[in-house]
Design brief:
26% strand, 39% helix, alpha/beta, six-stranded mixed β-sheet, 13 strands, 10 helices
């Protein structure tokens, strides 16, 4: 693991050690330090070993303390790694019709979210973002490789909450996603558009938005989700829970096919949960192109080891002093 220092200025203390050693060698004791007869009998060199031991322990304590104060850290860095990935914007319809329960036992949005999360978990080096839309479009997560944040955002997306005006603004959603993708660093830019309805909101024409996306080299994979005919949709909440009405299901497949064709993508139709899973598996086989990905590794403080060494050295020096001190 790579080692760095959070406060490297403390290491400058080590530069003073040679000066201290030089001054110590020049200094000569003026008198005998211990008034003990046994030391006088042994001669002036009798305590030399212990003095050198104490000096060594003191030096070791200073060095270890300097390293501890410099706060050594391991693994704390941001890597810019080269991987085989693409830039993907997930564009998810959250209009109230996505609450239709024709994907029993779940509604369309719940199934779409589960399949989206499975798709995200299967990617590795791709930068992925999330846009939700109804009558308006909202960027939930810009392009990122922080997949846990992205998965949490998908979990939190809900339909019919009033966060966005209801409706289906496909053109606005495409324009918002294309604007996010046009400055992407990778050569491969992909938009995955999932909707269950017809474009009935927004000032941007969906076909014009798709042509603009194509000018930015954005490929759109459009997905029409939902069964045919009618589907039960919650319309109100009463004392006995949600009240449902069977309403007609209408998907503008011609529009979704044009959007995909203008950009060199493909249109998919998913009438049930299994078909939607198959769609994502197909898109998962997209070609990959080199991109640069920033990965952040959390740091680990390693100051405890040099601090422990400094404390041990100090304790040993104190033990030597106590052992050699005269007993009164």
């Amino acid at each position: 693991r790579e080692i760095g220092f959070a406060a490297p200025a403390w290491l400058s203390v080590l530069a003073l050690l040679p000066l201290v050693w030089w001054l110590r060698r020049r200094r000569r004791p003026a008198a005998v330090r211990y008034a003990r007869v046994d030391l006088l009998v042994r001669g002036p060199r009798s305590g030399a070993f212990l003095r050198r031991l104490r000096a060594t322990l003191r030096t070791l304590a200073v060095v270890a303390a300097a390293f501890a104060l410099a706060r050594p850290q391991s693994g704390a860095r941001a890597d810019s790694a080269r991987g085989e990935g693409i830039d993907i914007m997930l564009v998810l319809d959250i209009s109230s019709s996505m609450l239709a329960e024709d994907f029993q036992p779940l509604n369309r949005l719940s199934v779409a979210k589960e399949r989206l999360k499975a798709f995200i978990r299967g990617r590795k080096d791709d930068r992925i973002g999330l846009i939700s839309f109804a009558g308006e479009a909202l960027t939930q997560v810009p392009l990122t490789v922080d997949y846990p944040v992205l998965l949490s955002a998908v979990d939190n997306v809900e339909a019919g909450t009033g966060q966005l005006e209801d409706g289906t603004a496909i053109g606005t959603a495409i324009a918002t996603a294309a604007n996010r993708l046009r400055a992407a660093s990778g050569r491969s830019r992909v938009m995955m558009l999932l909707t269950d309805g017809e474009s009935n909101r927004g000032a941007v024409d969906p076909r014009a938005a798709a042509q603009a996306a194509a000018a930015f080299d954005v490929r759109i994979y459009s997905i029409g989700v939902g069964s045919e005919g009618t589907a039960p949709i919650p319309v109100s909440r009463g004392v006995f829970g949600l009240r449902y009405e069977n309403r007609a299901v209408r998907i503008d497949e011609g529009l979704l096919e044009d959007i995909a064709r203008f950009t060199g993508g493909r249109y998919f139709r998913a009438r049930d949960a299994a078909a939607l899973q198959h769609v994502y598996e197909q898109i998962d086989q997209l070609e990959r192109s080199p991109t640069r990905v920033a990965r952040y590794r959390p740091f680990v403080d390693e100051f405890r080891w040099p601090l422990a060494l400094a404390l041990v050295a100090i304790a040993l020096e104190l033990a030597v002093l106590a052992w050699r001190s005269p007993v009164p």
